[in-house]
């Protein structure tokens, strides 16, 4: 299919404009609970460290990630070195945004590799921008690294299919070892991809001795990484593979496959892909991409099984499932584009398809506007409504402790630190670590939470979650805010 320069320019310009739309979220100065906690973990501290506590080194990063996070910690280590350049919220958000850009480029690269049509490849590059988990593009967490990592798995397989040399096997093994440290879900994708790569080595023309060397070179870095993750993260976070109480959508009930309706539609898609794979020899567009199709179907089946075991959630349109959703959407896009290439052959008709696709993409971005926009109302926005210097004693509940500490110690409120912070602030704390699961975790959490009416010695409460744990008849919400409370009648 011959490429025309005009549609290519229009699609490229539209893609760049869409990325600029996403990039505006880099300017959001507010780090919510998980982001602020992730930032302090990268400093060798945690959500509840003492204000102005000195930063620690790599050992502190590893220890605090193990006790106060729920991922292997690779992103925490990357952020540790990244933040040595700057602690600005824009610079910090550039790290996850870089992985997001990498995801977009990976979609384009793989699509062009398989379709050999730049226009179709660029259209497929819009998929990450339309994904429900778009908010994670600038969220200072490991989600965007996870999504990028799942695409790296596919790229590794494609490259090793063409050239499975010892050097390439070692390079891609190191690459997959790095992405495995992002989130535990990626380990599943790496494992499935590795089965194909090991089969590729076994079926190669290498001599028996070289095959053994190849298997060792590829497997050894991955094995070392898994051992490290297990002993330095997993045993502290969830050694018993228990279901976390705050993840209610983990379900062993068959109904999880059908409700909500979007999950049911996604399940139908997987069934269609499974049937297509079973008839791959009769369908040319499927036959050409059978490995990708098999990987996608197998990965989804594994994650569904993990959900029934209560180990990992299966909720396709949620950010904790980026790893398998991203490669599923890639597969669907490739097969759809292959079908399009065979059905639409006239240049005029194809240009119409491109125009219609851009229109639908624009509508999709508009529909997804809540993800593209900056976080609507947050504590930083609330603090701009009041003059915090008017309050002598300020209580910050556990949910906002890390966020407020970041704003005053590293963020946009740092200029007010000398006169206000930390002397006027008292910070609440959550549980000592994250090993409390289910009802036990909630019970332990409630034991250490004060009631709002027990905090009458304070002049201002920053308490978005505190109100859930006790009456607040002695307090009233500051007008125009969502979580700032002053004494009634003040």
What would you say this structure looks like, in words?
The chain is mainly alpha-helical. The chain has 2 domains: 5-13 and 98-372, no CATH class; 379-487, no CATH class. Helix content is 59%, strand content 3%. The chain is built from 21 helices and 5 strands. A 5-stranded mixed sheet has the order 2-1-3-5-4. Helix 1 (5-23) packs parallel to helix 16 (347-367), helix 9 (166-180) packs parallel to helix 11 and helix 14 (290-308) packs antiparallel against helix 15. The longest helix is centred in the middle third of the chain and has 30 residues, at 208-237.
Key features?
490 residues; globular; mainly alpha; single chain; 5 strands
Provide the fold topology.
Blueprint (H helix, E strand, L loop, with lengths): L4 H19 L9 H10 L15 H11 L5 H9 L6 H27 L2 H7 L2 H4 L12 H20 L3 H15 L3 H19 L5 H30 L23 H18 L5 H4 L2 H19 L13 H22 L3 H21 L1 H4 L6 H5 L10 E3 L1 H12 L7 H4 L4 E3 L10 H10 L12 E3 L12 E3 L6 E4 L3
Parallel strand pairs: 1-2, 1-3
Antiparallel strand pairs: 3-5, 4-5
Helix pairs in contact: 1-6, 1-16, 2-3, 2-4, 2-19, 3-11, 5-6, 5-8, 5-15, 8-9, 8-10, 8-15, 9-11, 10-14, 12-14, 14-15
